Amino acid sequence: MSPAQWDLPPELCCRPMAFVALTGLDVVYNAVHRAIWDAFCANRRADRVPISFKVLPGDHEYPKCRTKRTSYEWYIPKGILKTGWMNKHLNLVPALVVLFYELDWDEPQWKEKQSECATKVEIVRTSLQGRNTKVAVVLIQKKTPLPPGEDVMASERAAALCNACDLSGKSLFVLPHTDHLVGYIIRLENAFYEHAQTYYYTEIRRVKSHKEFLNKTTHQLLFVRHQFKTAFFSELKQDTQNALKYYRAAYSLIHELRTHETNILEIKTMAGFINYKICRLCFQHNTPLDAIAQFRKHIDLCKKKIGSAELAFEHAAWMSKQFQYFGDLFDEAIKLGLTAIQTQNPGFYYQQAAHYAQERKRLAFQLCGGPEANLGYPAPDPLETPTGILDFYGQRAWRQGHQSIDPPDPEKEKGGILALQGREKEVPHSELIIALLSNAVAQFKKYKCPRMKSRLMVQMGEEYYHTKDYAKALKLLDYVMCDYRTERWWGLLTSILGTALRCSYLMAQVKDYVSYSMELVGRASMLREDQKSRIQKNVAKVLKNEPPEAEPDCDPSAVKAAQALWNERGSQASGEDLILEVQDSVPFVQCKARFLHPSFHLDVPVQLHVFLLTDSPHPVRFSKLCVSLSNQDYNQYCVVDSLGQAPAQEDMCLVPGRTHRYSFRFVARPEDVGKKIEITGVDLMLGSENGRCIFLNWRGGGGDAASSHEALQATRSFKRRGRLPENEVDWDTVSIQASTMIISRVPRISVQLHHEPPALNNEMYCMMVTIQSHEDIVARDLKLTAGLKPGQDANLSHTTHVTLDGSKMCDDSHRALLPDIPMGDLQPQEKMEKPLSIRCSTTGPRIFLVHVAYTVDTCIEGRDIVCKCHKDETVTIETVVPFEVAVKFVSTKFEHLEHVFVDVPFLLMTDILSMSPWPLHLVTSELQLAPTMAAVDQPASQVEEVVLQTGESASECFCLTCPPVHHGTTGVASGQYVMSWKRKSANATIPVVNTVITLPHVAVETIPLYVHADLPSFGRVRESLPVKYHIQNRTAIVQEVEMSVEPSDAFMFSGLKQVRLRILPGTEQDMLYNFYPLMAGYQMLPLLNINLLRLPAVSGQLLRRFLPSRIFIKVTFNGPANSGIETAAKLACWLHLHLFLEQMLFPM
Amino acid sequence: IELKFHYTVHTSLDVVEEKVSAVGKVIVDQRELYLGLLYPTEDYKVYGYVTNSKVKFVIVVDSSNTSLRDNEIRSMFRKLHNSFTDVMCNPFYNPGDPIQSKVFDSMVSSMMVQTC
């Protein structure tokens, strides 16, 4: 039996296809025949009918058919299925034999050819004696045949040929050798396929027909055999549905067989075959659940059928194969489109297969002994058979065909078992296991089972360990270790580490050995104390360059080899340094490094603590501790070693469970100001120069794979920890601080700002900067930077100007920020003042910065360093509008004017309202008139030297006229109003601010007629009041004016009551009236109506606006009562005159 | 043997993870805590249960044990969950630390005794 004893035979695993033999083809020498053969077998695609073709010589001997049994009465079957049977029907006994023969219908020597063909057919027939195999003849012709029925000779000769060869017409074919060869071939093979189908159908009938002769007591095996054969033929016939049915029947029959120790292997073998077929067909029919169910049933039924106890490994091997084959089938189905899920994928079957393979290995070891054990192989090999193969599947070579319960010869049986055990010892179990495991790993990877994958990889690693392939084992274990570490499954990690440690010991890998040992001794390990103690002692030995003690459970021979290796290592490797990265594992020494503060001032030494804690059973002595920093210049200050200023020896020894603290301090360099100093790593050296040195290296500020979680737990915990003695620290309270900032020295000066906010728009705002030194030594190179703080709105820097010279007004040439104004040195306690002037040309808040920088020389811990210090002050200053100016145009009667009239005087009024919180000093004001305006008199400022408090206002009034304008101009510029002012508190040197207010445009109109009146400012009751009206014609034509005076209750008057007159262009007409007031107080003057006859648009109302409407009438003091009569007489006289004039002027 | 159980439980987390993430997409609030049978092996049946705070419980039962139906397993998980909640409610318990509650231990052992 071969090592592949448990493999399924290939004829079982293939897809059965109808077997058709082709004879009469000379594929070697005849090109036509070769082409025909190629057309049959080359490029068979899936749409071609499933046939397996074979070229055989015409006189090929087919397997002989045994004489048919007529009765089964005395027949006792020797086994279930012959080993050759499947192959026989797949490859040896054809369903159809096709004879190819070159013959054209118009062959001249027809007779001879016909009989030759008949002879050839006869030879084939004889060779197939007793079989149902069909025979067909294909005539290879050179000419294309005519359509059927037209070629009379062809049909005659065809009939004759059929007759001669004893063929039915259906079995004679013609293959014209023309261009369309493949097309003809496809038609031919379809016809062959039909013949084959019929053949297999008859075969099935034949097998079924045996059934009635069988009886249940002696022919149980035949029931199974026949069902199997029927199913197999059905498969050949491509009737997979029925095949499945028959296989299922066969499967249930096989479990009805009586099982005993001698036939159990045969039963299991056959059950395995049939199960394989069923599962395969189920997958093919796309019913994977049926396949799985069948397989489960199969396993459940067969699990307990172990058979001979001495050959228990055979059962395990068989089980393993069952799972493996099912996994293969499953996987194949998936490749063809089946979808598997996480919990049901081929991986599980491979895993189980691996499990049984391990079981097999265990049993084999147990039953066959270790590799040294020699059982003695029996001399004539009982496993050899005369033919080299077995007659029936699953039988024993030394007792083939034996079907009774007891073995025929106990002696032979013993020999056979011994031989099997001997062979089992040769089997490379681990290889099988690893192959299965890696299959499973691949599957689980595909179905997202990372943990399952890790677990299987551990198993693979362990298997490699058993095969002594330690390097591969370590590689696998190392790979998965970190997964278990990050998920904190310490129990599993410990077990893996144990294996890894043994591997590294056996290979004498010092670095790995120490690394695994340290983790096994550390807190993540679940080993017992005594184990840890043993491992730690081994580490100590390695450090002394001595070989460590062997790990328990190691193979003794391997240990011997390992010891030799260790001795070799020891002799060659003195003083070699091993650097172990411990960040990603959980070593037995923990490290945390921290700067005492997140930042240090330059003049303070930087302080750094390194905490170490060991959780090993024994104290750990180290020989050096050093810290690497991002600036390597400082590294020299952060070393603890046995040389130099040696600390006490006990400091170099870590006591388990106690937190050890190592402090370092150094002075930072001035150029590192503003930079970060980081701990890039901590190195702890174990061992000594004369032994072996091992550096444990922590990247950054320490910590390891478990520490971050521990720190989290510690912060959550509220547990009160017992008070620790002085100088001891609780490990959990220490946090890592891996970096610190170096910042400049704290300045010891004061900067004060004196000013009076808010700033007024455009003024030169004064700010006094007072700097006072509180240093003990001279502050050198004082520099002041002042102005608008950078980083604000960009517009602000254009509208803000800063200067040191407050006596002149700033303009755009001044900058917003004055940098680095040198101020010289400042003695201790000295005070320095610097005035600043700021001009803000827009309102709103601004942040101003005053930055004072200086240097001092200091000495820290014996090192002289120059410290740069600086102090910043910022202040937010609001800028506000100092005052508001309102301008309005009014008439001389102080009436509001929509527009002004040419050459008619009007008033311009300005109102200045102070908005400033500080008193405002108005120095002067000036009216700068536009050419389109003229002042009636010399305008002088009326608000000169006025001081306005908050909310107060000042007004000015100017009388102006507007000279004639071009016709059509509607608005004219008025000019500018300039205010000169400063803040009241400002001293004399501060320049005056000139604020220019542009006066509004005003609408101008010309009027054709201008009327104004001359009259005294008041009148007295019963005293004559002369009023003169001037009527001016401003047009270039003669104007006809009609005017009348309306009577009034308050006045009597004399003068023309109603008159019509003409006024020449540009001249003025005066009208004199004498009013005689009758009542005291403000009195309405008699209304003067003027109508321009030429220009009716100009109404009297408009003109009346130029005239005073009222006058104040005082009471007379001296007038005696009797004078009233006189007055009345005078009045009557006036009235007369009036009437007379009227009549004279306006004759009716 | 204990190691094997550790591995069994650890690998079952693959399935738990997958199930939780699949369910998480649908409805978070009305998630069924009991995940049912995670995966069958030859020897054991592994059941899973995940609380709303993603604490996972796993029960491993011998394959041959047929007395425990789905409902029994479910009620076992409930009991376990309740007891676990009690432990969590203990103000002196620091979440994440190993559970050292006598009540919890005895509850678990009584459950084990019952099923055996």
From TrEMBL, chain A:
Chief localization: Golgi
Signal peptide region: none
Domain Trafficking protein particle complex subunit 11 C-terminal: 1039-1090
InterPro entries in the record: TPC11, TRAPPC11_C
This protein's record includes keyword S-adenosyl-L-methionine: no
This protein's GO CC annotations: Golgi apparatus
PANTHER family named in the record: FOIE GRAS, TRAFFICKING PROTEIN PARTICLE COMPLEX SUBUNIT 11
Protein name: Trafficking protein particle complex subunit 11
Gene behind this protein: TRAPPC11
TrEMBL record, chain B:
Coiled-coil portions: none
Subcellular location: Cytoplasm, Perinuclear region
Keyword Signal: no
GO biological process terms on file: endoplasmic reticulum to Golgi vesicle-mediated transport
InterPro entries given in the database record: Longin-like_dom_sf, Sedlin, TRAPPC2L
Keywords, ordered alphabetically: ER-Golgi transport, Transport
One GO location term (cellular component): perinuclear region of cytoplasm
Gene3D superfamilies: 3.30.450.70
Main subcellular location of this protein, as a coarse class: cytoplasm
Signal peptide: none
Similarity annotation: Belongs to the TRAPP small subunits family. Sedlin subfamily.
Protein name: Trafficking protein particle complex subunit 2-like protein
Organism, as annotated: Scleropages formosus (Asian bonytongue)
Gene: TRAPPC2L
